[in-house]
Structure formats: structure tokens, C-alpha cells
Design brief:
Length: about 325
């Protein structure tokens, strides 16, 4: 046998039994790594399962705290809030309403569960009647600069309601710097920004658009989200956002873009989040429900692979299940 420069090296010697493998394991996943996306909706008395995402629910404000307590009991301390407002309009004005659904959710969680860290998604698509991520011009194109004011107003209203971090997902150019300045001017210089810096125009967001009711009424998001073919540009996007003041950057989706994730982490050296998106979740669920894969094994393997590629944190709908399995349940 020939092992190149190390004729005595036999990797298998460290693979006999769990205790030997544990000695050389490089990547550990734990509940501390998870951010759980939560859909909060207007109205009351509802906890509706999203048909394309078994195990994921849209909850009204009165049903929010049991959900939060369940997460805390599992050791999950980070939530990312998405809002489903009662009403939508052309510009998405319910996004920055002081008593909007996300703002009220922030107040409730901050008052009742100080050990939970509240992050809010900042975007227009859940609040606009047309489902695009910003203000439209006469031809139906999203107007980049005219959208910045709206996003800034939304971020400030979230911070006022107690959000501890804001996460802009709209992909308008220059929004991180714009939101940073607006937060600072409003007295929230200590509220960090997690930027969806490297977000691809992806088919994997399909089930989320069911969950958030945010599918664009016409066209797609290719004019503002990234081309899946580009990795250098993905790193540049992260660097621009860091220059504008982002505290954490993100690669989204996760699994088809692990190469980009690995480069963003290495080339920026910044805290990097991976968003294991809805379509990635639904594929696993569908295969598991058919008995085609072992769900526990596959989920833990894919979360480990995301962490191994360089993620500091993982936004994932699998968080609750994974936390249970990691705790030995
Ligand atoms: C809003 C937003 C989207 C997701 C997160 N924030 C949808 C989109 O850009 O179309 C997707 C999350 C997921 O698929 O789990 N812009």
C-alpha cells in the first residue's frame, strides 16, 4: 500500500468506534448554531401549517409565546421574524407601521422572553400587493433608490419595537449603508445588521412564498437577486455590505452554494450566516414522508456540511427537529 509521503498513515485507524471518531471530529453542530424563522400573522387564534412545509406554522400574535417557549426549551435562542400583515398596498406601508404585526411580535417576545434574541427580516415583498421587494416604476421595475427610504423606515420601526438585530433581504444596492445611517440617526447605533448579502435568484424559495404569501404577481426577482452562475460576485456583494456597515453577512440558499459560503467566510473573515431555505427543507420532508431517506440522518448530515463549509450560524426550518435529535431524543 502506498500513501504518498506518509507510508504509515492509515486513516481507518481513527474510525473504529464513536470515541475514536470523536477525538478527531472537526465540526460540531449544536442548537446554539440555529436561527429559527418564524411567520407571524395578523388576526387571532390561528396556527396554520404551511402545506408545502410540514412542521412549519404561521401563528397569530396570541399564539406566539408557546412557540417561543418551545424554542427556548430546545436551547434555540435566535428567531428571525417574518410578517404576514392584514393588508397590503402598492408601497407596502404596513411594513413600517408602529403597530404592524412584526413590531407587535417584537414587543411581546422582548417583554415575555428576555432570553430570546429577536432578529427581523426587513423587506417589502410580504407587504406589497404585487409581491415585489420594493417600489415599482410605471413599467413594473423595482426602483432601487426610491425603495431605500421604505426599508430604512421599516428597520427603524423594528428597532423601536425592540428588535435586537435587523436583516435586510431585499437586495437593493446601498441599503445596508442607508439603513445603518437611519438606525444611527434614530439612536439605535447598537442594533447590528445581518445582511442577506449574497442572495441568489433561486427556485428554492418556492415554498417560502406560500408561507409568506409573497410570490411576485408578475415577473421574477432576477433584476435584483444574484445569478446562480456567479461566485466572485457573491464574495464582492458581501464585501460591499461590510464596507457599508454590515455586522454579519449571508449566503442564501445554503446547500447549492456551499462553495460560495466557504469563499465568503474565508475571503471576508466576517461572521457568515447560511440560510438553509424553504425548498431545501421541503425536499427533505417530502422524501422522508415517502420513506425514501432517513430524515434524522440526512438533516444532521446536511447541517454539519453547512457548518463545515464555513457557516457561523444556520437559519433553518429543521432547527427544532435537529435540536431534539442532538439532545438525544
Ligand atoms: C424576502 C425573503 C425571501 C426569503 C427570505 N426573505 C423570499 C424571496 O426573496 O423570494 C426566502 C426564504 C426561504 O425560502 O426559506 N425577500
Amino acid at each position: 500500500m502506498e500513501y504518498g509521503k506518509f507510508p504509515q498513515y492509515r486513516p481507518r485507524r481513527m474510525r473504529n468506534g464513536e470515541l475514536a471518531r470523536n477525538m478527531i471530529r472537526e465540526t460540531e453542530v449544536s442548537a446554539n448554531d440555529f436561527i429559527y424563522p418564524l411567520f407571524v400573522k395578523a388576526g387571532e387564534g390561528k396556527r396554520d401549517e404551511v402545506p408545502s412545509m410540514p412542521g412549519v406554522f404561521q401563528v397569530t400574535l396570541d399564539m406566539l409565546m408557546p412557540e417561543i417557549r418551545e424554542l427556548l426549551d430546545l436551547g434555540i435562542h435566535y428567531v428571525l421574524l417574518f410578517g404576514l400583515p392584514a393588508e397590503r398596498d402598492e408601497v407596502g406601508s404596513s411594513a413600517w407601521h408602529d403597530h404592524g404585526v412584526v413590531q407587535e411580535a417584537c414587543r411581546i417576545i422582548r417583554a415575555e422572553a428576555p432570553e430570546m434574541f429577536v432578529i427581523t427580516d426587513v423587506c417589502m415583498c410580504e407587504y406589497t400587493s404585487h409581491g415585489h421587494c420594493g417600489k415599482l416604476d410605471d413599467e413594473g421595475y423595482v426602483m432601487n433608490d426610491a425603495t431605500l427610504d421604505l426599508l430604512a423606515a421599516e428597520a427603524v420601526s423594528h428597532a423601536k419595537a425592540g428588535a435586537q438585530m435587523v436583516a435586510p433581504s431585499d437586495m437593493m444596492d446601498g441599503r445596508v449603508g442607508y439603513i445603518r445611517k437611519a438606525l444611527d440617526d434614530a439612536g439605535f447605533e447598537n442594533v447590528p445588521i445581518m445582511s442577506y448579502s449574497t442572495k441568489y435568484a433561486s427556485g428554492f424559495y418556492g415554498p417560502f412564498r406560500d408561507a409568506a404569501d409573497s410570490a411576485p404577481a408578475f415577473g421574477d426577482r432576477r433584476a435584483y437577486q444574484m445569478d446562480p452562475a456567479n461566485a466572485d460576485e457573491g464574495v464582492r456583494e458581501a464585501m460591499y455590505d461590510i464596507a457599508e456597515g454590515a455586522d454579519m453577512v449571508m449566503v442564501k440558499p445554503a446547500l447549492p452554494y456551499l462553495d460560495v459560503l466557504s469563499r465568503v467566510k474565508r475571503e471576508t473573515g466576517f461572521p457568515t450566516v447560511a440560510y438553509n431555505v424553504s425548498g431545501e427543507y421541503s425536499m427533505v420532508k417530502a422524501a422522508a414522508q415517502n420513506g425514501w431517506i432517513d430524515e434524522k440522518r440526512v438533516v444532521l448530515e446536511l447541517l454539519t456540511s453547512i457548518k463545515r463549509a464555513g457557516a457561523d450560524m444556520i437559519i433553518t426550518y429543521h432547527a427544532k427537529d435537529a435540536a431534539k435529535w442532538l439532545a438525544g431524543e
